[in-house]
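User: Thanks for the earlier help. One more: Phenazine biosynthesis protein. Can you show the sequence and predicted structure together?

Assistant: Of course, both are below.
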Amino acid sequence: MNTLSYVTVDVFTSTRFEGNPLAVISDAQGLSDAAMQKIATEFNYSEVTFVLPPEDPRNSARVRIFTPTMEIPFAGHPNVGTAYVLGQRTEIFGKPVGDRLRFEEQAGIVEVSLQRSGGRVTATAIRAPQPLTVGDAIAAETIARCVSLDPGAVAVATHAPVFASVGLNFAVAELNGIETLAAARPNLAGFQQAAGTQTTRGHDFSLFLYVRSSDDPWKIRARMFAPLDNVPEDPATGSASAALAAYLVTLAPETDMNVRVSIEQGVEMGRRSIIALDVAKSGGTVTDVVISGSCVAVMRGEIILQD
């Protein structure tokens, strides 16, 4: 019987069965693209990662990321979780594991640092592979239709809803309160219409909604919906969080600043996650975004490839 080992971890949490679950295939050599997609669809997590030997020996591994419906160039929680899994090993493809890793991905090189306690990895931090790009504005009516809200629920004082990316494109929009955020419900027809009319840069229309704390504007509560990608709601979205944090720091009046942004997500799903973002801004431009969080192991097993 031909089998393939996997492990699952909950990411952006230190509490098992909270955070965002991730399946990691630590040695995916020999798998076809179609097989990877079928495995990701079978798990039905927001993402599954497949680890391969690096094309450049200076790097640690090549990591491919699949949602239930497609391969994507970058995502936050898959990198944080994959680094956590690989960091528990003594070597990766014959090379010793240190405290820093480099992943080859479609979006570019992802740099990783491992945080250890008692010799074990407890958290990881990754650097966004691309600078912030901000795309077209999106009508408040489009956002509201996607999540069954009134257009007046979309706050536009700080910014209009826009596309933003540091490696993966998201629509980001602020809502007018935590109760409104809790009331959001994805409307598939609204997402289908939005995807048909907006420039999504090769990715389904994925919507990241947020509310800023009145006590601390760098503390944020968020939800992410991507029903067109078979992800009705995602409990933790590091790539969207990084794009939003970079965009908000860009909009801040200070020319130079270093900010720690904390984003709480998944609360409404019963899978609370905490995503930390360290954003550096110099000369009016965001120069660095680091995504970090804790992880906890959950399951391990085997996938049967052939009887």
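User: Great, one quick takeaway?

Assistant: The chain is about 20% helix and 45% strand.
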